[in-house]
Structures are given as C-alpha cells and as structure tokens.
C-alpha cells in the first residue's frame, strides 16, 4: 500500500466514509485517524463494497441506456460507456461432474462479481487469490494464484498432477479438481475460499510442532557505504589549572558489497611524558558469508576464545562461524570472560542482581574480573562501561564456565593465525614476529552431550582444551572445562566442573549453581605464557528462589585458595533479598561475611556486615538508588536519567561514594543534537568529605560523524554499526525529512537540512528492523510513501532512502450517477494513459460516493475503469503545477443508481 503522509489508500477511503460532502480537504486529515486500520479488514470491506456495487448496478441496468451524462468537471474527461469484459469461465468437464445439490446463495446479485479473497486451510490463511462469484452462485478460481498458494502443501508428484490437470486453463470451477484429491468451497460469511480436504497421500510432510519462522528479509543495503566517527575530549585539572591537549578518537568503516575495512585511531597526551601519541587500536578487513554464517578477517585480530583458552591480540588472518551472528531469529548468547581490557580511560559501574554496587574510574589497563571481591557464585554481575570517547558498553557474567549455548545440531568454530602483539596498549606491535594459532570447534548434538575442543600454540606455550555438558533427566546440567598446556614453566593443567539446575515453578523458580575450578601452577596459554597463576582452587555456589514477581532471595558463597605469600586465601558468604514493595520502589537487604585477603580498589579486607539498598525508578530512563555496606563502611548515592537517541534529549547523573574515608562527588550532563552529541562531567575527590574539593577534574566531550552511501553525504551522530541517510525528493527539498522510532510528541532521531539528509544512526547488522520517516509541513495531500522502510543491514552497511517521488499527487472527488445520486461502494482500477507498462491501481468509492486516488504524477493523464455493468469509465489530467492535492470535485457517469 502506498501512503499519503503515512496513510494507506485503503485507510484514506475508510476515513472518507465518515466525512461530509463539503469537507474535501478535511477528509485527508480525517483519514489519518484510520492509519492503523488493518489491511485484512479493509480488504474484506472492499469485497463487501463490490457486492453492494453489484446490487446498485443491477438495479439500474434497464434505465441506463436512456441516461445522458452531464458536463464533466474541468480536469476530467466525459465518461465513456464501454463493452463489458466477459468473465472467462471453464465449464465442468465430464470426468468430474459436480454432485447434484442445491447451491447456496453466495451471490445475491444478478451479475458476475470479481473479488480477491483469502484461501484458508486448517484455520490458517495461505494467502489471497482472485475469484469470480457467478450470477448462478458458483465460484471460479484463478489458476495461477491458486497454484502459488497450494503447491507448498503438496508433494512433488501431486504438484505435477495438479499442473497437468489445469494446463492451459486460466480459471476453473472447484469441482474440476476433485479428482486430484483437493476439495474447495466458498464461505460467504468469511468471504473466503476454504480448502476442505487434501488427499493425505498427496500432502507434503508437516511438522506438528513448528517453531517460529524468520520473517522475510528487509531491503538490502547500498553496495557502497562509508562513515567516520569523531570524538574530541578535553580535560581540566582544578588543582593545577592545566588543560590537557584534546584527545581525539576516530573510528569508521568503508564497505563495498560484502567486504568491509574498519579502523580505530586515537590521539591523546601521555600523562607522564606530556608527549602527544597517535595510536592505532585496530585496522582490519572483514568479509562476511551470511548464507554460511561465516566471517573472515585480515589485519589486527581480536580472536574469540572458548573455555580455558587465553587471549592475545594477533596480526594475521582469521575465520569464524557463528549462526547467532547472522541469524537474528535466534537469541544471542553472551559467553563469560575473566579479563577486562580498557584501551582508554573509562567509568565502570558495577551492578549485582540489578542493584548498583560500586563505581570505578579506571585508567587504560587490564583488569582481572575474578579478583573482584564482588564475585558471589551465581549472582549476576553487570559492568556498565562509559568510555571517554562517548561509547557505552556492557559486560555481564554469572559464573566461570562457558556454557555451550547452541541449538541442537548446530556448531561453531573459530581459527586465527598471525603474529602476537607484544604490547597490550597503544598501537599493536608485531616486531618480534612470534607466530601463534588459536582456534576452537563446538557442536551441540541431537541426542548426545555437546562437546567443544580448542587448540592454541605459540613458541612459548601450547594448550589443548575441551568442553562438554550433560543434560540430566531432571533438566539440570553438568558442565566441564579442561585444558592441558606445555610451555616454559613446564606441563600444566586446569579444569572446572559445574552443576546448575533451574526449576520452573510457574510464576516463580528455584535455581542452584555449584562450580569447582582448579588451575595448576605451571598452566600457560598464549595469553599467559609465563604461567602466572596466583590462585589454585576456586569454589563457588549459589541458590536463588523467587517467591513472587516482586520478591527474590539468594544465598551464595565462594572460596579462593591462594598460592601467593602476599595474599591469603579469600572467602565470602552472602545472603540477599530484593523486594519491590511498590511499582516504583524496591529495596534490598543482605548479610555477608568475607575475607578477601587483600584490598582491591579501595575495598577493605572484609568482615561481617549488612547491606541496605533502596531504589526508586519512576520510569524506564530515570533511576535513583542509595546503598550502604557496614562490613566495608562504604556507601553510595546515585541519581540518573539516561539520554535517548533523539534530538533534544538530555541526560544527567549525580553520584557520591564513600569508602571508609576516601570520597567522591561527580556529576554529568549529556545532550543529544541533530548532528552531534556532547557531555560535560565534573568529579571531585578527597580523603574524606571534609576535603572533597582536594582534587577536581572537568571533562568535555563532543562527538559527530560523516557518512556517505547511495551518492548522498550527511553529518550525524556517532554510528557504531549500520546507518541510513533519509533525504527528500526534489519536489519537497524545501521541507525537512525526519526519522525516528516514534514521532510521538514531536520526537525524532534525525532531521534533514544543510548538512545532508536525516541520519538513522542505530541500525543493527543482520536484524530486520524499520526506518520510520515523515515530512514536516508537507504540502496537503503530498504522497510521501509508506512512511516506513523495512531493512536488513549487513555489517557496517548503509542505506539511502528517498522520501517522496515524482508521483506525489493525491486526488479526491465524488462519483455520482444519473439524477445526481452518489455511486456508492463501487470498485475499479486507475491506469496512466502515458505509460503503457504501468500497473493499474485500485479504485473504489465509499458509502457517499467519495473516492481517493494516490501516486499521481503532475502533467499526466489517467483513466478510471469502473467494475460496473455496463463497464464505464472517466479520464482526468493532473495539472503540471499541482503541489500535492487535486480536488476533482464531482464526476458524473451515466449509471442509474437506486434511491437509498
């Protein structure tokens, strides 16, 4: 369906049915209220309209010959009677005579009626096909449309038999195919053709328990696209008054068909030397084969690892297969990790079971998550990372073991080969030239335990690893990770054994998790070639019970055995309960006893204590929370409103922390503009609250992007995957185009202007999604199209979407017959006379004879053919200077219409 300012033509006519005759222009606005009218309902209404039109035509047949049409409207030609087109019918053959029975009255009118109706089978709609209801209460089915819908239900042999039976026949009566094992009937109540029976021997095999089916892929992206993100950050230190040199973060991608080149470069001042360094974080080619769920890499590699494998950045070539990356219909699975590597200064917020626990301000570096004293068995840990470059990321984990989360029968693999990066931060350094390989393969079998194997090898370390999981009869799962290594420290090994069980109790659940993890002193990998393993055994476990939708409780414990003389064994036991006592309010209380053996990030070594947390969340983007832990004598208060990806959105956060002495107070404001986004933050530090202003840092960040695709260039906000440039057609180039997830309250995410089209910057690769668009202050009646584009981007791809076209005019009018009576509920078709190859458009009138026609081009002439008896029509011309709405006023045809 085409749209008039986002309004379908069926909905337009539906809206016109409720509008008085004198309100032609207001009819368009009234139609907007009918935008959500389902197409199926409108089609059914159209079919009923055809029936009603037949009644009107039949009652006026005898008087029609004496009728004389009045003068036409200025823009319309006089109506011309035409010879009615015969309905092609194929009489029943002798081989399949119809059973003698009294026919139902499916057509109460004395004429043949062409219609488009659903074809139903087993309470589901197969699609729509053309039929003709004859005046003697038979129905004739279109052959091509029927075969298209019925063939998927038939075996190849049955398809051949049906094709032979209907060879050379364009339409048929249902009894003609009875001998093929297919029986049809027409239901006048549903206005649908029913497939009553298909011979069981001729039906294709169907699954009794069919899962969902992916929707039809959206529009493919442009063959070429490119974008460049730029973020600039400036920092001022209050104690010295020094303003740092601007840190510049550049990242982007160039794509041609399936090949993508992506890179990330940053320049910043070294805090120790004062020198300004420009560093390449990565530069690589990526080539996707989505039909095989495969991705190839060349350049700076960040290998995916599984199980007990170690991580190291490589410079070389790699390949991986993951169905979940390309098949959006399946759920994404996040594998847990042990290490967090920050390439730039970042703010880290730690949440446990959805409750804020701690906020860190961390410099670039490598951090071991297993050493965080927040590890509490099965509790869900979430790290919200806000980089100085403005990008926000989330890392979540709940246990050590990496589960094999694959669909039964599916498999995945990865293989990477290249030179090892000698450093961790800054530009990759492959100067030593040490080569390494890392790879894995994992498969989930139908009736056997899932397995995974991995292998890593370099000159300094070689590691062989394996994984498996066994599903028990009670639905529980046993998971095993094991690895053996050989390296400079010697032969080492590691293994982890885990058990988890979730009992679904309807609206509540129980869950258990137990993990035992051991690493030998000499265990090594390409990421840890020297075998630095300060911890030997780690035992953890947890139990959770959900009493109701509002009440959750859990208990967890962990014990870590240390090999270091400087750090003792550590352990913790923790019991918490979270309760939502009002829609906007929830609270958490807990008891803990812990001994971490050493401090980390300001935490004390532990002890017995209680935790109290209170959360107020009045809406999805606003949250206020406060907490206190008596064991560490630490607390925090935080108020936050998240900004949205729309123009004019503000976000803010205010936070204060106290850690048994050291204290911080911080605030941040975010603003989202049309072509940029910016943030301003200020943080004060002190040994305690009495001297909280001892050190203060202010940071200002500004980010934007430039993108090109489809011959269009635009400036917008940062792009992290795929994008669309939505621009106006030259006929409305002085009217801004907007894009957005929702336009409620005047909201939008991008707007066209001097710096190019509106940029939709948040598209995700290999996921069907919608790009919604509209035009501000569009000319009345201007046809902008559907108002929505369904797309399926590929990796780092772009779209150029034009709003409007040369065929932007919409025409309104009123059709009357003899004696100036409205021709109500009649259908027909509209054909451009200047284009012999154009497909005709649908035409019909409402109950007072009003009609609307869309997608008309200025300066062109059109003909409307009515499905009447006899066939009638009229012509009209769209003026060359028309800006959007054409009022045809009243069109008269020589048709006798019975008095209402």
Helix segment count? 6
Helix content: under 10%
- Give the overall form: globular
Our estimate of the beta-strand percent is over 45%
Structural class: mainly beta
Biggest sheet details = 24 strands, antiparallel, barrel
Q: Enumerate the spans where pLDDT stays under 50 for 5 or more consecutive residues.
A: 1-100, 329-338, 370-379, 599-604
Structure description:
By secondary structure, the chain is mainly beta. The chain contains six helices and 52 strands. The chain has a 24-stranded antiparallel beta barrel. It has a six-stranded mixed beta sheet with strand order 5-4-3-2-7-6. Strands 1-51-50-47-48 form a five-stranded antiparallel beta sheet. The longest helix has 21 residues, at 39-59. Mean pLDDT is 82; it is low at 1-100, 329-338, 370-379 and 599-604.
Features:
900 residues, mainly beta, 24-stranded antiparallel β-barrel, 6-stranded mixed sheet, 52 strands
Give the secondary structure arrangement, pairings included:
Elements: H1 9-16, H2 24-32, H3 39-59, E1 76-77, E2 113-121, E3 124-133, E4 139-142, H4 143-150, H5 156-165, E5 171-172, E6 182-187, E7 192-198, E8 224-237, E9 247-256, E10 259-269, E11 276-289, E12 294-301, E13 314-321, H6 323-326, E14 339-342, E15 346-352, E16 355-362, E17 365-368, E18 381-387, E19 392-397, E20 411-420, E21 435-443, E22 450-458, E23 461-471, E24 477-487, E25 490-504, E26 509-519, E27 535-548, E28 551-562, E29 570-582, E30 585-595, E31 606-619, E32 622-629, E33 634-641, E34 649-659, E35 663-672, E36 676-686, E37 695-709, E38 712-716, E39 722-728, E40 737-739, E41 750-751, E42 758-763, E43 769-775, E44 788-791, E45 798-803, E46 809-816, E47 827-832, E48 841-844, E49 850-856, E50 861-866, E51 872-877, E52 885-892
Parallel strand pairs: 2-7, 39-45, 46-52
Antiparallel strand pairs: 1-51, 2-3, 3-4, 4-5, 6-7, 8-9, 8-37, 9-10, 10-11, 11-12, 12-13, 13-20, 14-17, 15-16, 15-18, 18-19, 20-21, 21-22, 22-23, 23-24, 24-25, 25-26, 26-27, 27-28, 28-29, 29-30, 30-31, 31-32, 32-33, 33-34, 34-35, 35-36, 36-37, 37-38, 39-42, 40-41, 40-43, 43-44, 46-49, 47-48, ...
């Amino acid at each position: 369906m085409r749209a008039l300012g986002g309004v379908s033509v069926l909905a337009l006519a539906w809206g016109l049915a409720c509008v008085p005759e004198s309100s032609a222009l207001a009819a368009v606005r009234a139609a907007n209220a009918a935008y959500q009218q389902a197409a199926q309902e409108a089609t059914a209404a159209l079919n009923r309209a055809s029936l009603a039109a037949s009644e009107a035509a039949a009652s006026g047949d005898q008087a029609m010959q004496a009728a004389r049409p009045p003068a036409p409207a200025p823009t319309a030609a006089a109506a011309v009677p035409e010879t009615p087109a015969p309905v092609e019918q194929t009489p029943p053959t002798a081989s399949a005579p119809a059973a003698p029975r009294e026919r139902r009255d499916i057509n109460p009118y004395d004429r043949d009626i062409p219609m488009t109706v659903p074809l139903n089978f087993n309470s589901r709609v197969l699609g729509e096909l053309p039929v003709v209801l004859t005046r003697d209460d038979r129905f004739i089915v279109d052959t091509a449309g029927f075969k298209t819908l019925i063939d998927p239900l038939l075996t190849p042999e049955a398809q051949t038999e049906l094709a032979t039976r209907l060879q050379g026949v364009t339409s048929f009566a249902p009894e003609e195919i009875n001998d093929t094992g297919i029986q049809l009937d027409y239901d006048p109540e549903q206005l649908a053709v029913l497939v009553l029976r298909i011979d069981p021997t001729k039906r294709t095999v169907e699954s009794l328990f069919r899962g969902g089916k992916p929707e039809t892929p959206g529009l493919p992206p442009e063959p070429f696209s490119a974008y460049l993100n730029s973020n600039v950050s400036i920092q001022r230190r209050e104690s010295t008054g020094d303003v740092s040199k601007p840190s510049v973060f550049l990242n982007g991608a160039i794509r041609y068909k399936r090949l993508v080149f992506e890179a990330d470069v940053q320049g910043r001042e070294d805090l120790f030397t004062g020198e300004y360094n420009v560093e390449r974080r990565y530069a690589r080619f990526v080539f996707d084969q989505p039909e095989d769920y495969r991705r190839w890499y060349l350049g700076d590699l960040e290998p995916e690892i599984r199980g007990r494998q170690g991580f190291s950045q490589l410079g070389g070539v790699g390949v991986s297969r993951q169905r979940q990356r390309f098949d959006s219909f399946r759920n994404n699975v996040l594998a847990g990790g042990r290490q967090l590597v920050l390439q730039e200064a970042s703010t880290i917020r730690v949440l446990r079971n959805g409750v804020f626990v701690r906020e860190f301000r961390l410099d670039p570096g490598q951090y071991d998550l297993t050493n965080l004293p927040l590890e509490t068995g099965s509790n869900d840990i979430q790290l919200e990372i806000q980089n100085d470059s403005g990008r926000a990321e989330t890392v979540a984990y709940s246990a050590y073991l990496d589960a094999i989360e694959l669909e039964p029968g599916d498999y995945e693999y990865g293989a990477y080969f290249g030179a090892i990066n000698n450093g961790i931060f800054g530009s990759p350094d492959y100067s030593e030239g040490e080569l390494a390989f890392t790879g894995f393969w994992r498969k989930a079998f139908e009736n056997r335990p899932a397995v995974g194997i991995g292998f890593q090898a370099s000159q300094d370390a070689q590691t062989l690893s394996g994984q498996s999981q066994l599903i028990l009869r009670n639905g529980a799962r046993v998971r095993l990770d094991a690895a053996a290594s050989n390296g400079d420290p010697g032969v080492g090994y590691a293994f982890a054994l885990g058990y988890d069980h979730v009992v679904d109790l309807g609206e509540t659940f129980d869950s258990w998790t137990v993990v035992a993890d051991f690493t030998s002193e000499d265990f090594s990998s390409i990421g840890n070639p020297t075998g630095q393993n300060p911890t030997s055994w780690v035992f953890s476990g947890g139990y959770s019970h959900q009493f109701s939708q509002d009440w959750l409780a859990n208990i967890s414990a962990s014990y870590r055995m240390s090999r270091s003389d400087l750090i003792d064994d550590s352990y913790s036991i923790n019991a918490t309960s979270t309760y939502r006592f009002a829609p906007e309010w929830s609270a958490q209380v807990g008891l803990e006893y812990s001994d971490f053996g050493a401090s980390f990030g300001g935490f004390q070594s532990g002890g017995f204590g209680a935790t109290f947390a209170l959360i107020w969340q009045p809406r999805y983007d606003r949250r206020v929370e406060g907490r206190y832990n008596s064991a560490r004598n630490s607390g925090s208060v935080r108020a936050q409103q998240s900004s949205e990806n729309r123009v004019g959105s503000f976000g803010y956060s205010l936070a204060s922390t106290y850690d048994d002495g050291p204290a911080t107070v911080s605030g941040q404001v975010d603003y989202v503009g049309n072509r940029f986004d910016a943030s301003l933050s200020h943080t004060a530090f002190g040994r305690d609250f009495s001297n909280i202003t001892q050190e203060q840092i202010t940071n200002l960040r500004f980010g934007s992007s430039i993108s090109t695709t489809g011959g269009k260039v635009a400036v917008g906000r940062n792009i992290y995957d795929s994008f669309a440039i939505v621009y106006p057609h030259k006929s409305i180039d002085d009217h801004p185009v907007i894009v957005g997830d929702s336009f409620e309250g005047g909201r939008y995410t991008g707007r066209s202007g001097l710096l190019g089209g509106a940029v939709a910057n948040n598209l995700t690769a290999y996921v069907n999604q919608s790009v919604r668009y509209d035009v501000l202050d569009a000319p009345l009646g201007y046809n902008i199209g559907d108002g929505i584009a369904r797309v399926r981007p590929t990796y780092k791809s772009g779209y150029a979407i034009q709003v409007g076209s040369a065929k932007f005019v919409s025409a309104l009018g009123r059709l009357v017959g003899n004696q100036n009576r409205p021709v109500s509920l009649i259908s027909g078709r509209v054909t451009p006379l200047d284009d012999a190859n154009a497909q005709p458009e649908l035409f019909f009138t409402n109950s007072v004879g009003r009609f609307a026609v869309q997608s008309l081009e200025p300066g062109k002439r059109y003909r409307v053919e009515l499905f009447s008896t006899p066939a009638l029509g009229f012509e009209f011309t769209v003026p060359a200077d028309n800006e959007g709405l054409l009022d045809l006023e009243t069109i008269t045809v020589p048709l006798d219409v019975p008095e209402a």
